[in-house]
Amino acid sequence: MTSFNIGMYGGGTVGGGVYELIMKNSPSNNMKITKICVRDLNKPRDFQVDGSITSWTADPDSILEDDSINCIVEVMGGTGLAKRIIETALKKGKAVVTANKALLAEHWNELQKVLKANPKARLAWEAAVCGGIPIIQILQTAYQGDEISSVTGICNGTTNFMLTQMFQHGAAYDQVLKEAQGLGYAEVDPTADVEGHDVRAKIVLLSQLAYGGSIVGGVEQIPCKGISKITEDDFAYARLLKATIKLVGTARRMEGGKVSVYVTPAIVEERHALASIDGAGNAVVVESKNLGACAYTGPGAGRYPTANSVVADLYRLSASTTAAAASDDALTLDPNYAGSFYIRFPVAKKHAGIVGKIGVCAEQHGVGIRSVLKNTDKDFCVITEDCQLSQVEGLCADLAKQDFAGNDEALFMPILSG
Ligand code: NAP
Ligand code: HSE
């Protein structure tokens, strides 16, 4: 066991939890947090710090330059300063634990280069994906002799909490977002949560582990839609379909070796494993050749679940001496994912023969229609047979040009069948 003198960046939701969990078992765990770096030294904190062991600083370099500190916990967030801190710490031979999925997903290849160039460097990041669920550990160890065909997950606590409250209790979007922020689930800028960018970072990381390669060319190439355009009408249609709505990240191995990675809200049928995941809960369903479908569920955000993952990483790093660089083979992406889709498109009132016209448009795009539903005067809902994203996009663009089209954009999402 290596003894860790830890310098921690961040003393907020996650940092406070890490401090409490590490220090309550110190010194028997051979770890102590000796410095905490925050932005504002005068801000009141909601956790007690032992001043005889731990000091505060607002100078990030004071931790990096402190040779008595051999381990860094980065729970500060952001992709600028945090990147410099992690890279410098790794180069100096300090063990690093981070919860920062945005940074890992955006700068994965650069970090791997640093790890490869510094064989003694160690980087762990269990807390970066799905909060308290040990999904990184599982993907790194449990599928080594297996072949993963898909990873599908609810990977964001904020939006799952919001969708649950809106769907089950009719809560208003703005109100429930504020609640999620108050509970410590949301990112500093919650746009990352509600527009799907947080899930995009996480599914990028999961797909790299699942398929043993790296995504080259940036995370922006991943198709990504969040929950901000979902309306009460979508919830009403979901109820008609005996389903709910979840924000889902998917990474699926396609024929020919390409990988389809995307983030989208989905209509999730009640019998599907993801349908019952409520509140800030997360779940990842991994399908593989030997195991079939395995679901890993648990708390996806919040102080103690996330801190627990950071602390588990610290224990693992303290016990191991191995480096953590991953494969840098490039994964070939296929953004044109397939499935059965739900399409809700707005219509102007009092038009006859709309269903027939929808059928003609769908046929032109090679899209089979399973059913057409109408729950309100202002929109129609179409459920398609299996088809590709590009066909649905083409159909929606065509529907928008018809004389019966309303002013708003069509909203579509794939359907996860039970
Ligand atoms: P938070 O509550 O906002 O805390 C961030 C902390 O970092 C604050 O103490 C802040 O200082 C400090 N900080 C920010 N910028 C800094 C800078 N430039 N220099 C020095 N200190 C700085 O955030 P959090 O929820 O704990 O999240 C931290 C990280 O964990 C993020 O990467 C997030 O994505 C990740 N994460 C969070 C959760 C969760 O449930 N919250 C779960 C998994 C992963 P001040 O307090 O002085 O402002
Ligand atoms: N904002 C993130 C979420 C934190 O809501 O899931 C956990 O990564």
In short:
The protein is of the alpha/beta class and 418 residues long. It is built from 13 helices and 15 strands. The protein starts with a strand and ends with a strand.
Give the topology, please.
Layout: E1 4-9, H1 13-24, E2 31-37, E3 55-57, H2 60-64, E4 71-74, H3 81-91, E5 95-98, H4 101-117, E6 123-124, H5 135-141, E7 148-154, H6 157-169, H7 173-182, H8 191-194, H9 197-211, H10 232-240, E8 243-253, E9 259-269, E10 281-288, E11 292-299, H11 303-319, E12 338-346, H12 354-364, E13 369-373, E14 379-388, H13 389-400, E15 411-416
Parallel strand pairs: 1-2, 1-4, 2-3, 4-5, 5-6, 9-15
Antiparallel strand pairs: 7-8, 7-10, 8-9, 10-11, 12-14, 12-15, 13-14
Helix pairs in contact: 1-11, 3-4, 4-9, 6-7
The chain binds NADP nicotinamide-adenine-dinucleotide phosphate and L-homoserine.
Bound molecules: NADP nicotinamide-adenine-dinucleotide phosphate, L-homoserine
* Main sheet specs: 9 strands, mixed
What class, by secondary structure content?
alpha/beta
Question: Strands of the largest sheet, in order across it?
Answer: 11-10-7-8-9-15-12-14-13
- Unreliable runs, pLDDT <50, ≥5 residues? none
Oligomer type? single chain
The number of helical elements comes to 13
Shape: elongated
Strand content: 15-25%
* Count of extended strands: 15
Q: Give the CA-CA distance, first to last residue.
A: 46 Å
State mean pLDDT (0 to 100 scale).
Answer: 95
Helix content: 25-40%
Rg from alpha-carbon coordinates: 23 Å
Secondary-structure element pattern, one letter each: EHEEHEHEHEHEHHHHHEEEEHEHEEHE
